[in-house]
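General statements about sequence and structure are easier to judge against a single worked case. In the encoding step, the backbone of a single protein was reduced to a row of integers, each denoting a local shape. The record that follows shows the chain in one-letter code together with its fold in token form.
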Amino acid sequence: MAKKETLKNKSVAVIGAGWAGCAAACELAQQGATVTLLESSRYLGGRARGVAVHGHELDNGQHILLGAYTQSLRLMRLVGVDTETALLNLPLQMVYPALEDGMSFIAPRLPAPLHLLLALVKSSGLSFSDKMALARFSSTARWMGWRLNEDCSVLELLERFDQTPRLCRLMWIPLCIAALNTPPERASAQVFLNVLRDSLGARRAASDMLIPRLDLSSIFPEKAAEFVRAHGGQVLPAHPVTGLQQNENGKWQIQLKQVEAHAEAQLPVYDAIILACDFANADRLLSTLPAKDQPAPIPALSDLSYEPITTCYLQYAPSVRLPRAMLALLDDVAQKKWGQYVFDRGQLQPDQAGLLAVVVSVSKAATDIDRHELAMDIAAQLAQSLGMPELAQPIWHQCISEKRATFSCTPGLNRPDNHTAYAGLYLAGDYTKGDYPATLEGAVRSGIAASQAILKDLKAAKI
């Protein structure tokens, strides 16, 4: 049954065509609004987009989605993406190379929580005390309802739950870094528990790991743009916004860099605007408006800080193939072992045989050193960890660093609501108030929440 068009004859501008902006634009378009989606870059997707690398369509950063990302998967299907073919579905696992002093933990495709129990029983590389500590953590977290009375760091949480040093090193800390992109000593334990609740603590499929076979732009943003256009909206890449203004009737206008030189240009009028850009640009645009009193001030967006992520692509001969599509790695910056996960792109796309992607999260040092030096360090790490000497000399390499990949997800962080002090002006982005850290699902949920806020407010105002 088609959804009722409750926003028909309403116009909404969404500034920023990342995953939050694209999600908001799709929801609004489905509700019948006339949507204008603006993006300062020539490319859609924001900090999770496709890029051309040596003739391959790859990503500016290798991502993993989870089966728990229900809203992301729903919107992908809404805009026509076949998620069964676009994503490689793997059971929950944490597997290290056989030569490393790691572990092998793979959940079978059985109903929850049996899948975790059998994975724990059959896991290798963990002692009996490690396994008991993991079981104790899971049962205690469930008993607590995955909630803390007061937030603390992930490191404090692990100490409180008496987790063994080896289990922390091989599982909890890598999971924390992968999920929150924040070091465990300053990462929010509550947000970490939220992610575990919706994956390990939910149905078995929620814990599945989904690795994009296609580039990230293809599996949502570009299809979202087609969806918006098909519903009468427009998508405007390479349209940087320089300011906002609200007229006496409460309607909104956008100042564009392209039309600043033409004072006589007639600016479009919108019923509402969503700022779906990153928090630094949202703060910049909010500063172009006159200050406005409000009972509960928006937390200062300028107080939020960033965490980096680097992805290193290494091309080898097509015959090079890893034992699995994804492996965890033991990192040690002191030994120049930067990589935390390695992905065999050839097991995702046949035309990428021999191409490996290595992820380095929360390491500013990795963004500061020479790109060639970093790639050679990672190649040497792979050669040693996998026992494959040929990996020390890639045919080519490319390191891509996003210095502002995510916000720093610290304990008790005061994240802003979707509403602002201005009627008709909303925020969307993974940094806004919500259960999730800076993930694709967090961004998508925020975009949906902003669009729902518009629907509710316009209905209440009856305009």
